[in-house]
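Task 17 of the worksheet. Students: predict the tertiary structure of the chain below and write it out as structure tokens. Keep your answer in the requested format; marks are given for formatting as well as content.
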Amino acid sequence: MNDSNILDKIIKSQEEEKKASLNPQELVNFILKDLNQREREIINARYGLENIETKTLEAIGKKYEITRERVRQIEKNALKKAIKTNGLEEKMADLVSLVVKYIHQGGYLRLEESLFDDILENSQEENVDENRLRFIFKYFLNDYIESVDIIHTERAWKVKDKNLEHYTPIIEGVKNILEKKDEPLHLSEIIKILEQEVIDEKLSVIIKDIENWEEAVKSYLQVSKYFKKNLFDKWGLTHWRLISPKRMRDKIYLILQKYKDPMHFKIIAEKINLEKFDNKLAHPATIHNELILDDRFVLIGRGIYALKDWGYQPGIIVDVVKQVIAEAGAPLTKEEITKEVLKRRQVKEGSINLVLADKNIFEALEDGSYKLKD
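Model answer:
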């Protein structure tokens, strides 16, 4: 093993130790230790440092029977006092080290949600810890990181004093790739095309310049308003129907594609609600109506639907049996018919037997096979 591999392992081990020992609650307690009880209570309530819910100035004012403006003054003075806490820089050292490293890996820019996922991997109360980190980031890490205003996203952070000259060329490069391909792509596919097919000289320089190229591209895609990842871990343009579906029938299509199995319409509704495409709730009755009206979907059992692309056939069982025999161009045994019908519909074998017993449609031959009656 060479020296660089040993050093990488040591650095990785130290990083994991810092993350495992990170305790946002302990950091907040240290930050607020010099405040009086009312100041601590107000700061905790305003930023959700003990419970995930944050309180408004008005709600806190009612509790202490003071005005909103007085609450604001107490909050402001308490923050000034907390920032001057002795030993704060030393106490924050491990967190600063982790945060700067993770943002640096993302090309000096990280989406807050993604950054918190990395830092709070071992958290037992992730939601409240996110509030605590957000509070710490905003007021106590200003010498190291800063929020980003030019990025069209919910929240993002960058390394202090690092410019984002790489961001726009990469975003424009990916936009061009997706518009030409006109379909969602995996991150690895996007990166491969960027590396092999990009002719922009400036982008070629950037690729060589960024230390962790793949992580940077991923980070920029997460931050940008132009891109979104779908259920299949593929990136596409945000306005594409198969990336950000607006209509229920598009959501149904994505769910069936994701699970690759026929589903009852009630289960489809549940899956849509679990995915949280948007704030619209999927009701089973609505889903059932959409399934009936869209010819991409086929009823193959009682309330069970599949994608037509999978080879399933619409119609009642007798129609499916007739088509199976007709397509074969020769008589088929009951076993052969059953096997082929079950590929197209989810029915009980007994139902197929009942259909074959109809002598007005099917003729049973001496060898046990069946043909369509002339």
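Marker's comment: The two ends are 79 Å apart (CA to CA). The first helix runs from residue 3 to 21.
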